[in-house]
Amino acid sequence: MTRLGVxxxxxxxxxxxxxxRIVKAYFADVDLIVHLGDYVDPSIVRYLMEQKExxxxxxxxxxxxxxxxxxxxxxxxxxxxRIGMIHGWGAPFGLEGRIHKEFVDIDAVLYGHTHKxxxxxxxxxxxxxxxxxxxxxxxxxxxxxxxxxxxxxxQILPL
Length: 159
Prior knowledge:
Elements: E1 2-7, H1 17-26, E2 32-35, H2 42-51, E3 54-56, H3 64-69, E4 73-78, E5 81-86, H4 95-100, E6 108-110, E7 118-122, E8 125-129, E9 142-148, E10 152-158
Parallel strand pairs: 1-2, 2-3, 5-6, 6-8
Antiparallel strand pairs: 1-9, 4-5, 7-8, 9-10
């Protein structure tokens, strides 16, 4: 089994105590940290890369150096599963339909942008948004864990 620590929409200018606590307390036993964009500052990427194996995509609020350094979408293949990663764009209404069209033959879509956690299936595809760790749209700040083995399951972790 592979465990992913999933975070998005941090919107931080530098690593802070909240980010450090997330990595140490919530991502201590993950195999990989996944960030779904809107880091806002390259220091966030550097910090996460120093902690664990890391993979990410760019978000709409990221500066050019991050948008040029990360793809807007990617497919991660783990345990014979295909996981689409994308930040998202535009209005939150209809977002899952728009981002699903960006991928072919996937088992899950991990996305951000809305600052609102989501963990559900549409047909056989898991749609997972960890929410925002620092600026939630509704409810509490959150991150997530996605476990990949014979299937894919997600868990939202309120902070």
